[in-house]
């Protein structure tokens, strides 16, 4: 079908192939390759050659300007009939105007609304986000669309975050409630409630004031809730931390506190949690914002990771990084100051959110190990990338082993099993219960190891009985990192599941049971925007709540199926959930304090 | 008839004959415009222009001037044919796409005229490859009517400064917005993606900016999916000239230095995104 | 049935890894045949003879510092195992700096080849990594399925050009066509050809030389009477050829192919004492 095209007799030439107007005209009648007639007629466009000097280097032959009509080839030439115009030129007003008037139309002048005040005007001191994005950046505002349109768009855009919020809150179990009633918990204090209400009102309007230094719209600028500046090498460290966190979950929680900026993530199945705390010393400038109302927010991990995607580029080009949290604009601004004076400004949508809090206590872990990250990284490298889990065990003579975990008995005969022994003197510290062992996911661990190796830090592993979480920690004066991973329940001991079971439907457990749980439960606490930081979450609260649980039909189904298994723990995998419960406010107007545990399959995770 | 036995000089005369000591000087430029399978080749005595278009909104031209070739002869005023660019590139790089210093692939390219295939003879280290690529009826090309008298703003940048920017474009944004202005922000690339907007600002006195001629503030949006393919040209180029005319049409000219140090050009034209422009009316 | 072997020399380890990597790229599962003096990796794709087959043979003495094996019986002193070469390749991948690698046939829960790698460590004692690679022991009655293939009664035998060039050519051609015609004559000429609606491409190799095949019985093979210029050709699946060229890591000192017109192409790659034979059947 691609064969030679049958051809009418006669030598192929322009005439034969251009029999009539509208027929394909294969040869552009204009020899656009560097026309040899360099004399531009008076008033005509300069010949392509005129372009050249701008390059500072005159190319021989056809230059970049060659596409333009050659001087000697007025476009009125007969061959011109065959040439198509670009879509927009044909359809658009420009094209029409051009054809009508024969002169370059001034599109913007014609189109500009009678007043160019739209961007600044109606939006008032705080231009809508849409205006900021669409109009504000344009200095002259000539393209500024009519107000009604901006509004429409603006409101659509503004709607997006709340949609995300709603849906995500839904996914996050109790989060829906949390999102809706951030102020409820501190019902006593009128102040925070009012503030939060105002916040929502703003959100409802158009999404807040001008965000980002890039916003030309101006408007009332309140001080950002958080402002930090990070210098060169620490930008890389931040980038690596984000990469490690991106292995954990889809959302990144940011919380500036007095002790530093906290970055956190949890896996959808709540089987993994990680936090990086960047100390004030980590920054060139660190202003966490008003201590009375610490802003908390979460952003899409993908989006945030996008800013720091290329670590080598970060290394090569970025000199400084500015982080600004502007709750009024619902924008987290990440600004990278790069080589050659280039600035990259990312205005990221965020959601105000509950605090993501893992409650764990390394002191309660019976075993701990500390080794240079490199030793562990070199150990892990022997395991295939496709392997989901490894078992860490304390063997005779203080030796530590890592072994591929083969989930299915049936797989045993098919899968390669790798085992590695490390002598005690490879560790900086070993304090383990003899014969203890735990099984955890490799993916998240690898992420943290990569970070630790690049930072050249020792890594400490705290663990306890199988089924209870393992805690991996890194510390240095500028930052600390925690990774909390669910461990697999030992098959042998699965008949008597430990603590974390059945919160949502078991009768109120005994106190020591709860106590046990507290040590490793990760509670997702809904806290008021103006809540005192110091108030500890109350992870055990739901345990002692005998209220009936509100659960979705889906969860009910699962409960039936699993018959007493922990929601959030898929039946086929024996992972203990890390139990991110949402601790609800009791004073609010909610029907009942509810405690929901995410019931998502951990398959995606491990 | 086996190609190998087809004598080069017999039969109908070739309307186009070109030979090149290093086929990569051609293939790398063609790769810079390869975002669609088909290309229109247009040859005059001055050289070869290869044009690729998409969506009636974007056009890319690679110019290979005659003196890049060791031999370049066109028997007619102009010669035009359409060809599958992917196939042409596979043929041109039959001995490998990566450059191995010291062993260039020599190329001879012949075309007998309308209805005939394009013949390629490639030789490297004594091994000869003969390719016969069928040509197709050429189609009309878009006329962007981009005229330098109508250019409003123009910036010449070292390509290095745009490479990372283009590599990290937020592809969830439908458009790339380009602002050029005599005043701040001078030169700004913006995207509006799922999770927020991003702006990239270049100061006009940056070392990357070789020339800055902006007469009035212009902000235009272009479909990001159409602009993205020009990244290929950007990767090869050393400098890029960014121009917009009074209609908001965009011209990106890439200056590319080949392995032998010669300068060639690749040019992209793009229409502003009309959906948005119309929607805003 | 017992088998244990040990490699200490790094260069030997490296060579052995390269052979295993090659096998892993060419076969998902294969048969490992162990005899007192040799190892064989065998692939017999019997699917109506539509598939390829492979026969790779190496002398244990050139790789292993220790090599002990006891076959099924004294008069059948051999072991046949089925395994996934990818596993073995993976186990050896992180063993590049090993002090020693031991391979042992074990049967704890299931039959396994246990690869133990002794790695240097920062501590006083070495770090030991073991990989248990599950295998299936192939019973004796099935051994006949894994006989060494006969060199076919070819029409033309010819040395291959530089594999790097050939690989590049075949890779480009693979983008253009599903099948490739490989043709050669006794004058040291070989052509690779594809032809489609869009394009036809032929790459001509010259002066390759034809290997001398001495027939044992003095009987001339059919190649002997051929016209020197006349081409023997076979059309084969281009992906299979590309796999061989891309997958091979043995860097053969000698590479040749035998063409049985319209039936099969037989490739032989030789590197010192490693020989890899690869059979690609012709397409109808």
TrEMBL record, chain A:
GO terms for molecular function: double-stranded DNA 3'-5' DNA exonuclease activity. GO terms for cellular component: checkpoint clamp complex. Gene3D superfamilies: 3.70.10.10. Residues 553-564 have a biased composition (Acidic residues). Its EC number is 3.1.11.2. Residues 1-218, 492-511, 529-606 are annotated as: Disordered. Residues 1-12, 21-43 have a biased composition (Pro residues). It is found in: Nucleus. Residues 44-74, 89-129, 179-197 have a biased composition (Low complexity). Residues 206-218 have a biased composition (Gly residues). It is an enzyme of class 3 (hydrolase). Pfam families: Rad9. Signal peptide: none annotated. Its main location: nucleus. Residues 130-143 have a biased composition (Basic and acidic residues). Keywords: DNA damage, Exonuclease, Hydrolase, Nuclease, Nucleus, Phosphoprotein. It catalyses: Exonucleolytic cleavage in the 3'- to 5'-direction to yield nucleoside 5'-phosphates. GO terms for biological process: cellular response to ionizing radiation; DNA repair; DNA replication checkpoint signaling; mitotic intra-S DNA damage checkpoint signaling. Component of the 9-1-1 cell-cycle checkpoint response complex that plays a major role in DNA repair. The 9-1-1 complex is recruited to DNA lesion upon damage by the RAD17-replication factor C (RFC) clamp loader complex. Acts then as a sliding clamp platform on DNA for several proteins involved in long-patch base excision repair (LP-BER). Belongs to the rad9 family. This is Cell cycle checkpoint control protein RAD9A. It comes from Cairina moschata (Muscovy duck). The lineage of its organism: Eukaryota, Metazoa, Chordata, Craniata, Vertebrata.
From TrEMBL, chain B:
It is found in: Nucleus. Component of the 9-1-1 cell-cycle checkpoint response complex that plays a major role in DNA repair. The 9-1-1 complex is recruited to DNA lesion upon damage by the RAD17-replication factor C (RFC) clamp loader complex. Acts then as a sliding clamp platform on DNA for several proteins involved in long-patch base excision repair (LP-BER). InterPro entries: Cell_cycle_checkpoint_Rad1, DNA_clamp_sf, Rad1_Rec1_Rad17. Its main location: nucleus. One of its GO terms (cellular component) is checkpoint clamp complex. This is Cell cycle checkpoint protein RAD1. Pfam families: Rad1. It comes from Asarcornis scutulata. Belongs to the rad1 family.
UniProtKB/TrEMBL annotation, chain C:
Keywords: Cytoplasm, DNA damage, Nucleus. The lineage of its organism: Eukaryota, Metazoa, Chordata, Craniata, Vertebrata. The keyword DNA damage applies. This is Checkpoint protein. It holds the Pfam family Hus1. GO terms for biological process: double-strand break repair via homologous recombination; meiotic DNA integrity checkpoint signaling; mitotic DNA replication checkpoint signaling; mitotic intra-S DNA damage checkpoint signaling; nucleotide-excision repair; response to radiation; telomere maintenance. SUPFAM superfamilies: DNA clamp. GO terms for cellular component: checkpoint clamp complex; cytosol; nucleolus; site of double-strand break. Component of the 9-1-1 cell-cycle checkpoint response complex that plays a major role in DNA repair. The 9-1-1 complex is recruited to DNA lesion upon damage by the RAD17-replication factor C (RFC) clamp loader complex. Acts then as a sliding clamp platform on DNA for several proteins involved in long-patch base excision repair (LP-BER). Component of the toroidal 9-1-1 (RAD9-RAD1-HUS1) complex, composed of RAD9A, RAD1 and HUS1. The 9-1-1 complex associates with LIG1, POLB, FEN1, RAD17, HDAC1, RPA1 and RPA2. The 9-1-1 complex associates with the RAD17-RFC complex. HUS1 interacts with POLB, HDAC1, FEN1, PCNA and RAD9B. HUS1 does not interact with RAD17. Interacts with DNAJC7. Belongs to the HUS1 family. It is found in: Cytoplasm, Cytosol; Nucleus.
């Amino acid at each position: 079908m691609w064969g030679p095209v049958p051809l009418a007799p006669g030598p192929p030439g322009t005439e034969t192939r251009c029999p009539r107007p509208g027929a394909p005209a294969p040869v552009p009648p204009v020899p656009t390759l560097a026309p040899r007639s360099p004399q531009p007629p008076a008033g005509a466009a300069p010949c392509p050659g005129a372009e050249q000097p701008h390059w500072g280097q005159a190319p021989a032959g056809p230059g970049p300007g060659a596409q333009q009509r050659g001087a000697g080839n007025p476009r009125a030439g007969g061959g011109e009939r065959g040439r198509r115009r670009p879509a927009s030129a044909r359809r658009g007003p420009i094209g029409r105007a051009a054809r009508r008037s024969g002169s370059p139309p001034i599109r913007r002048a014609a189109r500009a609304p009678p007043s160019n005040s739209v961007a600044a005007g109606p939006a008032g001191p705080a231009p809508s986000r849409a205006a900021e994005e669409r109009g504000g950046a344009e200095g002259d505002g000539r393209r500024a669309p009519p107000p009604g349109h901006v509004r429409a768009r603006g409101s659509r855009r503004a709607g997006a975050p709340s949609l995300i919020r709603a849906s995500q809150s839904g996914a996050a179990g109790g989060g829906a409630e949390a999102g809706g009633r951030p102020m409820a918990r501190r019902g006593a204090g009128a102040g925070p409630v009012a503030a939060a209400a105002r916040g929502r009102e703003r959100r409802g309007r158009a999404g807040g004031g001008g965000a980002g230094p890039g916003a030309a719209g101006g408007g009332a600028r309140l001080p950002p809730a958080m402002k930090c500046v990070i210098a060169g090498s620490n930008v890389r460290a931040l980038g690596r931390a984000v990469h490690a966190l991106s292995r954990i979950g889809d959302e990144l929680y940011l919380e500036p506190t007095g002790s530093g900026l906290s970055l956190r993530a949890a896996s959808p199945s709540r089987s993994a949690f990680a936090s990086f705390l960047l100390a004030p010393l980590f920054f060139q400038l660190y202003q966490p914002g008003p201590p009375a109302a610490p802003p908390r927010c979460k952003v899409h991990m993908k989006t945030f990771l996008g800013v720091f995607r290329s670590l080598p580029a970060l290394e090569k080009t970025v000199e400084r990084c500015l982080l600004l949290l502007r709750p009024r604009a619902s924008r987290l601004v990440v600004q990278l100051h790069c080589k050659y004076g280039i600035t990259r400004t990312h205005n990221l949508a965020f959601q105000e959110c509950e605090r993501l809090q893992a409650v764990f206590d390394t002191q309660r872990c019976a075993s701990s190990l500390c080794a240079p990250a490199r030793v562990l990284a070199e150990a892990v490298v022997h395991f295939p990338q496709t392997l989901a889990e490894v078992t860490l065990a304390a063997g005779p003579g203080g030796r530590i082993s890592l072994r591929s975990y083969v989930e299915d008995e049936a797989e045993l005969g098919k899968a390669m099993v790798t085992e590695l022994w490390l002598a005690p003197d490879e560790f900086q510290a070993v304090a383990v219960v003899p014969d203890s062992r735990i099984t955890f996911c490799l993916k998240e661990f690898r992420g943290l190891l990569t970070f630790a190796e690049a930072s050249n830090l020792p890594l400490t592993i705290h663990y306890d009985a199988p089924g209870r979480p393992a805690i991996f920690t890194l510390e240095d004066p500028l930052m600390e990192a925690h990774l909390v991973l669910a461990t697999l329940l030992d098959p042998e001991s699965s008949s008597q599941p430990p603590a974390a079971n059945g919160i949502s439907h078991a009768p109120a457990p005994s106190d020591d049971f709860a106590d046990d749980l507290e040590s490793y439960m990760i509670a997702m606490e809904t806290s008021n925007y103006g809540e005192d930081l110091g108030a500890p979450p109350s992870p055990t609260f739901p345990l002692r709540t005998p209220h009936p649980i509100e659960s979705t039909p889906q969860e009910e189904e699962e409960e039936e199926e699993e018959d007493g298994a922990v929601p959030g723990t898929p039946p086929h995998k024996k992972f203990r959930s890390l139990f991110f419960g949402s601790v609800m406010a009791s004073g609010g107007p909610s029907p009942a304090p509810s405690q929901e545990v995410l019931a998502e399959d951990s398959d995606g995770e491990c | 008839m086996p190609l190998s036995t087809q004598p080069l000089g017999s039969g109908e005369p070739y309307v186009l004959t070109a030979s090149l000591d290093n086929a990569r000087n051609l293939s790398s430029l063609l790769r810079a415009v390869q975002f669609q399978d088909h290309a229109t080749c247009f040859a005059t005595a001055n050289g070869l222009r290869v044009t690729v278009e998409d969506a009636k909104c974007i056009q890319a031209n690679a110019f290979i001037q005659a003196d890049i070739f060791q031999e370049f002869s066109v028997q007619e005023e102009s010669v035009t044919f359409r060809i599958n660019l992917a196939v042409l590139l596979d043929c041109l790089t039959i001995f490998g796409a990566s450059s191995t210093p010291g062993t260039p692939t020599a190329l001879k390219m012949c075309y007998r005229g309308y209805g005939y295939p394009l013949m390629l003879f490639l030789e490297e280290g004594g091994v000869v490859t003969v390719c016969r690529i069928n040509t197709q009826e050429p189609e009309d090309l878009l006329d962007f009517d981009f005229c330098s008298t109508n250019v409003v703003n123009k910036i010449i940048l070292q390509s290095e400064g745009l490479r990372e920017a283009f590599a990290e474009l937020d592809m969830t944004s439908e458009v790339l917005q380009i602002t050029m202005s005599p005043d701040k922000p001078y030169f700004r690339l913006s995207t509006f993606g799922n999770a927020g907007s991003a702006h990239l600002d270049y100061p006009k006195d940056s070392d990357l900016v070789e020339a800055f001629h902006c007469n009035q503030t212009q902000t235009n949006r272009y479909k990001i999916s159409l602009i993205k393919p020009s990244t290929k040209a950007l990767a090869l180029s050393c400098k890029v000239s960014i121009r917009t005319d009074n209609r908001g049409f965009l011209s990106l000219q890439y200056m590319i230095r080949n392995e032998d140090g010669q300068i060639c050009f690749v040019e992209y034209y793009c229409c502003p995104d009309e959906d948005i422009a119309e929607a805003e009316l | 049935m017992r088998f244990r072997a040990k490699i200490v020399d790094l260069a030997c380890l490296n060579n052995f890894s390269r052979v295993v990597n090659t096998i892993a790229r060419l076969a998902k599962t294969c048969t490992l045949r162990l005899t007192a003096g040799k190892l064989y990796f065998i692939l017999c794709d019997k699917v109506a003879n539509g598939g390829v087959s492979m026969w790779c043979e190496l002398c244990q003495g050139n790789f292993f510092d220790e090599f002990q094996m006891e076959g099924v019986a004294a008069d059948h002193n051999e072991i046949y195992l089925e395994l996934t070469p990818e596993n073995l390749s993976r186990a050896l991948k992180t063993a590049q700096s090993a002090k020693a690698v031991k391979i042992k046939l074990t049967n704890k829960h299931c039959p396994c080849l246990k690869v133990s790698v002794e790695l240097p460590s920062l501590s006083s004692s070495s770090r030991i990594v073991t990989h248990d690679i599950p295998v299936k022991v192939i019973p004796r009655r099935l051994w006949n399925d894994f006989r060494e293939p006969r060199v076919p009664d070819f029409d033309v035998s010819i040395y291959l050009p530089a594999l790097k060039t050939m690989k590049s050519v075949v890779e480009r051609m693979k983008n253009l066509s599903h099948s490739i015609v490989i043709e050669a004559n006794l004058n040291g000429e070989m052509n690779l050809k594809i032809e489609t609606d869009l394009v036809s491409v032929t790459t001509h190799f010259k002066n390759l030389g034809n290997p001398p095949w001495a027939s044992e019985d003095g009987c001339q093979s059919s190649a002997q009477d051929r016209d020197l210029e006349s081409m023997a050709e076979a059309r084969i699946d281009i992906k299979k050829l590309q796999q061989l060229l891309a997958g091979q890591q043995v860097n053969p000192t000698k590479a040749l192919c035998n063409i049985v017109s319209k039936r099969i192409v037989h490739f032989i790659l030789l590197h010192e004492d490693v020989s890899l034979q690869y059979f690609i059947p012709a397409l109808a």
